[in-house]
Amino acid sequence: MGTFEAFFSEQKGALLRALYVMTGSRDEAADICQDAFLAVWERWDRVGSLDDPTGYLFRTAMNRHRSHLRRARVATRRLLDRTTVRDQLSDAVDRADVARALQQLSGRRREAIVLTELLQFDSEHAATIMGVASSTVRRLAQDARADLERLLEAGHEPTR
Question: Helices marked H in the chain — which ranges?
Fold first, then answer.
């Protein structure tokens, strides 16, 4: 078992990049990254001796991300129930084509494509992180690539 500090130094950059792609926000990515590392640090006596502490870290981060999304959905519903400025909210979102396309993917497809393409994990490693079979990861990534291609092609047409 290595030290937590060494593990943190080795994994922080990759986790931050993955979370940035997942969230589209540096601040949110940093918050989730911090939460995930704190959870791992609190359990380092057990996590550090795992065969794959990196998988545990990334799975923890993805779970934290899903939790943030649930809270955001609840907050958005409350906001939209109080006001009818839905058009202003959607107009305020103006991101790069790829970032927008990634955000349109289902959470599981986005996770699969980030883990396999951006972080270059093989499907076995990504499956461990996501808690699914490796064949499921391969299918999700394949579907995500097809969706991204379709969304990016559609993005070059004028939006209404």
Answer: 4-23, 26-42, 44-47, 53-82, 86-92, 97-104, 107-113, 123-130, 134-155
Q: What token pair was written down for 49?
A: 């001796």
Q: Distance (Å, rounded) from C-alpha 19 to C-alpha 97? A: 18
Residue 37 contacts residue 13 (beta carbons within 8 Å): no
What amino acid is encoded at 8 in this protein? F
- Whether the CB-CB separation of 95 and 81 falls below 8 Å is answered with no
Q: Is the pTM of this model over 0.90?
A: no
Look at residue 105 and give its three-state secondary structure. coil
Burial of 100 (0-12, 13-18, 19+ CB in 10 A): middle
pLDDT, tens digit, 9 for 90 and up, residues 53-73: 999 999 999 998 888 778 777
Question: Among 75-79, 112-116, 130-134, which range has the highest average pLDDT?
Answer: 130-134
